Amino acid sequence: MRLFGRKSEPADPAEAITEFWTWWREARPEIDAGVEAGDAARLDELIGGAVTALHPSLIWEIASGLTAPHALVVSASGDPELRSFVHRWALAAPADAEWEFLPSRQADLQAAEFTAEVAGRPFGIDRMVLGLRVPPGTPRVDVSAFHPIFPDVDDETRMEATLLALDRLLGEDEVARWIGDIVAAEFEPIDAIPAIHLPAVVADVADGFRDEQWALLEGQTAGGRRLTAAARYPLRPVDHPLFDQHIGITLPYGYADEDGLPAGASVDALRDFEERLARRLGAGGSAVLVAHLSAEGTRVLHVYADSAGDVVREIEELVSGWGEGRARIDAESDPSWSAVAHFLT
Q1: d(CA 85, CA 244)
Q2: Domain range list for the chain
Q3: Of residues 91, 90, 162, 77, the one with CA closest to residue 123
Q4: Helix orientation angle between 13-37 and 80-91, rounded to the nearest 10 degrees
Q5: Which of 176, 248, 269, 309 is close enough to 330 for a disulfide, judged by CB 3.0 to 4.6 Å?
Q6: Is 3.30.70.260 the CATH number for 214-343?
Q7: Whole-angstrom Cα distance, residue 88 to residue 18?
Q8: How far apart are CA 228 and CA 295, in angstroms?
Q9: φ, ψ for residue 308, nearest 5 deg
Q10: How far apart are CA 205 and CA 183, in angstroms?
Q11: Would you list the DSSP string of 122-169?
C-alpha cells in the first residue's frame, strides 16, 4: 500500500492519540472490509485522514504483521521531532488479534522479491547494487546505491527509491542507527555488491558496538580555556525513542586545577554523584545519562528522560545533597536531542 500524508495543523498530541483510537474502534469494520477487498482508494480516504489528524507530517502503510495478520505502520519518516510521538501512539493501541500497530517500517524478510513502480518503471531490489564504505572506528555504513532505472529518473526520485529499498532491507530504525551518508548514484559504483547483502554488512559493524562505550573529548571554551567531555558512543536518539525530555544538571565544583577542570576531592565527589545518578536512572528505566562536560569550575550533565515520568523530581532529590556549590536543573522538551547535537553519532 502506498504511503500517505497531507498537510494541516497538528492537534494536541495526547488528545490526538486518544481521538485516533476512538476513531479506529468505530471505523474498524469498514477498514477490515477495505483490506479484504483490496480497496486502496477507500483505505486512503479512511486511514489517511485519521493519520493526518494525528500529525500532518506522518506517513502510513498497511503491511503484513510480525505477530498478527495485518499491521498498521505509522511512521515519523525520519523526523526525530515526531519519533517519540509515534511510539506513544503505538503504546496506546488496543490489544487486537488481527492487527498490530508499529511506529516504524520493519525489515522485509523477502526484500529480494520486493518490486514497485517508480516513475513508471519497474523497480526491484534484486537489481539494486550498493557501494559500501565503513569509516574506520565509526558506527556507520556509508551507502552509494544504483539501480538500472536511476540514469533515467531525477535526483529526488532516485533518493526516494533508495530510501524505500533501505527501509525494506533493514527496517527504518536500523537505517537510523547504522546508515551514514546516502548517495543515490546515477552510475554504478566501483566494487558494488548486491543490495541484499547489506543486512550482513550492518550486522558485522554492529557487533563492534554491542558493549557500552564512552568517547572522551577535549576542546576549548569560548574564552580559550580547556574543557573535557564524555559521551555515550554511539549516541543516537533512535535507541531511546520515548526519551523526549532533556534535563541539564549543572554542578559547580570547589576544587579545580589551573585550567578550571575538577581536581582533588571534587573529582571523587563528581564520580560519586554520577554513580548514584546512574543507579537511580537505571532502576527506573525511564531516563539515561548521555554526556557530561566540564569547564571553568562547572560540570554539566545531560540526561534524557521519558516526559511522562517523574524523573525531574528524582534528580532534584539527588541534587539537593550536592555540597560544593549551588546546583541547577533545567528541563525542557527536546525529542530531537538538539541539546547534545554535537555528541550525536
Answers
A1: 9
A2: 13-102, 111-207, 214-343
A3: 162
A4: 70
A5: 248
A6: yes
A7: 11
A8: 7
A9: -80, -10
A10: 20
A11: EEEGGG-EEEEE--TT-S-EEEEEE-TTGGGS-HHHHHHHHHHHHHHH
The single residue listed with the C-alpha cell 516526559 is 307
Of the candidates 247, 240, 305, which has an alpha carbon nearest to the alpha carbon of residue 87?
240
pLDDT tens string for the chain (345 positions)? 333 333 344 458 899 999 999 999 999 999 999 999 999 999 999 999 999 999 999 999 999 898 999 999 999 988 999 999 999 999 999 999 999 999 999 999 899 999 999 999 999 999 999 999 999 888 999 999 999 999 999 999 999 999 999 999 999 999 999 999 999 999 999 999 999 999 999 999 999 998 889 999 999 998 899 999 999 999 999 999 999 999 999 999 999 999 999 999 999 999 999 999 999 998 888 999 999 999 999 999 999 999 999 999 999 999 999 999 999 999 999 999 999 999 998
| 317 three-state secondary structure | helix
The amino acid sitting at 309 is G
Give, in order, the Cα–Cα distances in Å from 198 to each of 30, 83, 123, 149, 204: 39, 24, 18, 20, 10
C-alpha cell of residue 320:
539537593
Residue 177 identity (one-letter amino acid): R
CA separation for the pair 263, 326 (Å, rounded): 18
Q: Cite the DSSP H helix spans in the chain.
A: 13-37, 40-54, 80-91, 155-170, 172-178, 198-207, 265-284, 311-319
Cell numbers for 140? 556507520
Strands 179-184 and 226-232, by their bridges, are: unpaired
